[in-house]
Design brief:
Order of helices and strands: EEHEEEEHHEHEHEEEH
Radius of gyration: 15 Å
Structural class: alpha/beta
CATH topology: Rossmann fold
Strand order of the largest sheet: 3-1-6-7-11-10
Distance between the termini: 15 Å
CATH architecture: 3-Layer(aba) Sandwich
Shape: globular
Helix content: 25-40%
Largest sheet: 6 strands, mixed
Number of domains: 1
Strand content: 25-35%
Number of helices: 6
């Protein structure tokens, strides 16, 4: 297997597990992952939030960790990357207001490169206009945005552990889906998976 370069776009209050776990899992199989945030440089950090399902009508939120960026947003060239990862949390709600972020999402989609988005990450897919006529799993609170953007919302499984593939898009409802979501993303990337 040859190493591929993967771009991950994050922001303050990204969901802790949804940035930390994929970042580590993709490196574990040999890929190079560059995590970037608009207006921040390599060595800067974003703060994360931990979202949990504790029986309330929505998730709870607790302080997470500092996640150190290893690349500079202004220096990246989307053409240098084989895939894109869009974690969830609260970061996508403000990242979708950044024209360059949306341009990058469109680049990956138009080039047919794999895009993995989880939880609230599909807010970026909706804002970039790449969901029309396509299936997309997301956190249930994002259902309306997926549908307004012309996408078909794929409901979460009982334990939020499902992933959905529609062409180059690999989407999932929340961090309990990491095993399925990352496995499907690796398959779309062409990375050998499992036994």
């Amino acid at each position: 297997m040859s190493s591929q370069r993967i771009l991950m776009i994050v922001g303050d209050f990204v969901e802790d597990y949804e940035v930390m776990v994929p970042f580590q899992m993709l490196q574990m199989v040999g890929h190079v992952v560059h995590a970037v945030c608009p207006q921040k440089r390599a060595g800067d950090y974003v703060v994360t939030a931990i979202h949990d399902f504790e029986g309330h009508q929505t998730y709870s939120e607790k302080p997470g960790h500092r996640f150190t960026l290893n690349a500079t947003f202004d220096d990246i060239e989307p053409g240098d990357y084989a895939g894109l990862v869009l974690p969830g949390g609260r970061a996508p709600e403000y990242l979708r207001l950044n024209a360059r972020v949306l341009e990058i999402v469109r680049h990956f989609d138009q080039a047919g490169k794999p895009i993995a988005a989880i939880c609230h990450g599909p807010q970026l897919l909706a804002a970039a206009g790449v969901l029309r006529g396509r299936g997309c799993a997301a956190y249930p609170a994002v259902q309306a945005e997926v549908q307004v953007a012309g996408g078909q919302y794929v409901p979460a499984a009982e334990r939020f552990d499902n992933a959905h593939v529609d062409g180059n898009l690999v989407t999932a409802p929340a961090w309990p889906a990491h095993p399925a979501w990352i496995r499907r993303f690796l398959e779309v990337l062409g990375t050998p998976v499992g036994v």
